[in-house]
């Protein structure tokens, strides 16, 4: 018996040609919703109360359900469930933002005038506080005694000699 294998006829494989890649057309996208119900409500109520608002798109909804608009006066926030639906955050000359309840346009104008006339430091460190601190540092530096290193070493040695505290053991349970 012969051990020869019978060869199968070789099948020809089809030739593969590279196909140029095609990018599918992008899916249509919607524009971001620029007008929300809360923005419409805030704009409408602001118009009724005589507050300076420019466009509905200027009102930005927040996570708390309020709507905020930024203007030249500062920030105006509309919260429908609040006793005073509008709160104005107006920065003063010292950099602090004052918050005022607003019912109508006259309240906003009065709040702007009050914030413009504010000269209080509000307890926050400002340039004036820093200047006071520097002045105090200069006067306290003039009052300080000048010691040489030998005098400092003698003082530390005298302290160590006067220290009679001994370490104590921890109480046993």
Could you describe the 3D structure shown?
The chain has 173 residues and is α+β, with helices and mostly antiparallel strands. The chain has a domain at 37-135. It contains 4 helices and 5 strands, in the order αβββββααα. It has helices at 37-48, 105-116, 127-143, 149-162, and strands spanning 59-61, 67-71, 74-78, 86-91, 97-102. It has a 5-stranded antiparallel sheet with strand order 1-2-3-4-5, with helices on one face. A hairpin with a 7-residue loop joins strand 3 and strand 4. The longest helix is centred in the last third of the chain and has 17 residues, at 127-143. It is flat. The N and C termini lie far apart (97 Å). The mean pLDDT is 79.
Name the features.
alpha+beta; 32% helix; 173 residues; five-stranded antiparallel sheet
User: What gap, in angstroms, lies between the N and C termini?
Assistant: 97 Å
* Assembly annotation: single chain
How many beta-strand runs? Answer: 5
As a percent range, the share of helical residues equals: 25-40%
Reading the helices and strands in chain order gives HEEEEEHHH
- Overall pLDDT metric: 79
Tell me the strand order in the biggest sheet: 1-2-3-4-5
Q: Segments where pLDDT lies below 50 for 5+ residues?
A: none
Instruction: Report the sheet with the most strands, covering strand number, pairing sense and barrel closure.
Output: 5 strands, antiparallel
């Amino acid at each position: 018996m012969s051990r020869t294998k019978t060869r199968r006829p070789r099948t020809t494989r089809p030739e593969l040609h590279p196909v140029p890649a095609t990018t599918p057309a992008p899916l249509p996208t919607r524009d971001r919703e620029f007008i929300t119900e809360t923005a419409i409500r805030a704009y409408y109520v602001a118009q009724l109360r005589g507050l300076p608002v420019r466009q509905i798109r200027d009102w930005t909804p927040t996570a708390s359900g309020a709507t905020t608009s930024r203007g030249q006066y500062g920030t105006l926030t509309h919260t429908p469930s609040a006793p005073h639906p509008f709160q104005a955050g107006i920065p003063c000359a010292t950099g602090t933002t004052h918050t005022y309840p607003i019912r109508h346009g006259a309240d906003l104008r009065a709040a702007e005038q009050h914030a413009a006339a504010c000269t209080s430091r509000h307890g926050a460190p400002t340039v004036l506080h820093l200047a006071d601190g520097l002045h105090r540092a200069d006067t306290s530096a003039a009052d300080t005694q000048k010691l040489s290193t030998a005098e400092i070493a003698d003082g530390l040695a005298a302290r160590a000699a006067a220290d009679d505290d001994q370490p104590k053991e921890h109480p046993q349970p």
